[in-house]
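cron nightly-structures :: item 1 of 1
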Amino acid sequence: MVDREGEYVDCRRHHPGPRSVDESGAAVRYFEDLQPGDDALGSTFVVERDEMVEFARRWDPQTFHLDDAVANAMFGEGGVTAPGVFVMAIRTRLLHDTPGTGTDIAVIAALGYDELRFHAPVRAGDTLQLRQEWLDKRVSDSKPDRGVARSRVSLVNQDGVQVMSHIDTVLVRRRSLTD
């Protein structure tokens, strides 16, 4: 995780594993299993230049995403930079690839991202790792079968530099109230 001053802090606490199974028999974590302060270190992803540039060419054709000389002049040596939307796509993939952060949580819907920041450029060859810390949660006022949970999600590169962060708010199923 990154502290309030933006410094990298080694995470030592990790969330417990899945505690329940759903109707299909798959492991799942419900609202009750998400505890503020629990954090997870996730999967990693190596950024490939061709994929990054192809994405930029189609969706965000800024010159610093396509031309090494322009990127170097603007951001220092290292070549073209990844579009922010591409970085968010990597974050989404890593959330789904990391046990305890994605598809094994009983998420009903994403409610929004707050405080989205891109702290440093992402470049070809970077290895990004997902980090997630649960911040808080509350039972829904209108529907007691669900709750709202917030986590801080970030991507950190191979040098321990945080490159992206945001607060993620999700609507999560509660365990059956009759269990």
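cron nightly-structures :: done
Helices lie at 49-59, 63-66, 68-75, 84-97.
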